[in-house]
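Fig. S4 source data, part A: sequence.
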Amino acid sequence: MPIESAIARLKSQAALLYQVDGAADFASIETAPRQLPAAFVTPWTQRPQPSLLDTMQVEQRVAVQIAVNICVSNLREPGGRSALDALKPVLAQVQDVLGGWSPMEGYDPFMLGDGRLLKLLPGALWWTQIFNTAYIWRSK
């Protein structure tokens, strides 16, 4: 999966992010990370399409979605408005860094998918942004 490539690209090109990690680090978080903004790249879905061939061989287009879970500070007010303002430049940078970029050989470039508020905590706002890609899988 293209998760490691996305993590490496965000670490090297998303200057607004203080921390970029993967699923294991995200799963262990119970509060906001110490250094914000932060992003955690996790698998979302993998959906194979029917085979493109009418033979004993199988060739399928596999749609892959990854989630970039972004956390920004929400210290100024409990309603989250300042956190949404803080999210805008970070989200724009993440979209610019990953959008249109192919994470691995044989994968389509990432396209922007759905985004949504994950949670609003005292001191932090979490946003999940989905990125879509696909590849062709062939049986041996």
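Fig. S4 source data, part B ends here. The mean pLDDT is 89.
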